[in-house]
Amino acid sequence: MSRRRPEENELPAWFSDSRFKKADLHCHSVYSTFKYFRIANTRDSYNRPEEVYRVAKERGMDFVTITDHDSIDGCLYLLNTMPDLTDFFISEEVETWFPETRQRIHVNVFGIDEKQHREIQRLRSNIYDLHGYLRQENILASANHMFQNYRMRNSPRQYFEEMLRMFDVFEVKNGAMASQHNRLIEDLMSVVREKRGAVSLVAGSDAHTLSPLARVYTVAEADSPARFLERIRTGECFVWGSEMGFRVLLSDVYRMVFRYYGSVLDWKNPEFTRGEKARHLALAAMGAPFSAAGVPFAITSLNYLKQIFVSRRIGQELLEDFVDPEKPS
Which domain holds residue 92? Predict the structure, then answer.
């Protein structure tokens, strides 16, 4: 007997209402490079863009996008391969920084073109410059997994206030994050909506393999990708789905490790010269003992525990600050 996802046990009325459209607004393809070991051709995903599109549609997504790390190559590849698509739009996940603290932030930008991508990449080293350009171009952008990379380099209140000043759209449900992290952001945004007015809340699987793809997504009443994005801009959308949890996340990490070694051993891959393939193989062999010794398990575990710790450490403080805005920081 097959196991059903929790949200499929009692599907709401809107699920079968054709007016409501669904899109996983955070997922990756093989064009997402793993920057920390780029010389060995490591990737943050080994999903082909056409696989991402096919699986997303099979799982009920009405609109599809790909948010690779600082790249739209996967989106362009798919559009070149399938030029008649009308349910796909170009997006990317941008890594940017606060210049004074070097606090790192990930931002999804949606519905962009190649010219905008180039300018975004030019400006992304400074979040203030990037923010100014996004506002100038009226580009829809969401602040992703807000506390994943938070390093306590400024007060939680100051950091959160900065984010609220720059963004109107926040990712409140990320399928790869700990549920404690997602719940904190949802709770904070409920208070923000009550105290300060509308903010828009979105969701995505943050899938790096096909298994969690389209399990977490955003829903809006729309008849086209452009209208869908406009609904998000005005806050007329909601989120749905469940986090994958630590066990599934860990299995996905090891699935990525195995896909990496499979790619390195694929000597028929025309993408690289024989010399490049030999270098990749040598570096992969050097890294094999670390994988066998459980380094991926340790890194994944520590990151997951850090999410829980940070959420608990700053969550109550932030919620109290917004309930009592006169409280000194």
Answer: 13-248+298-323
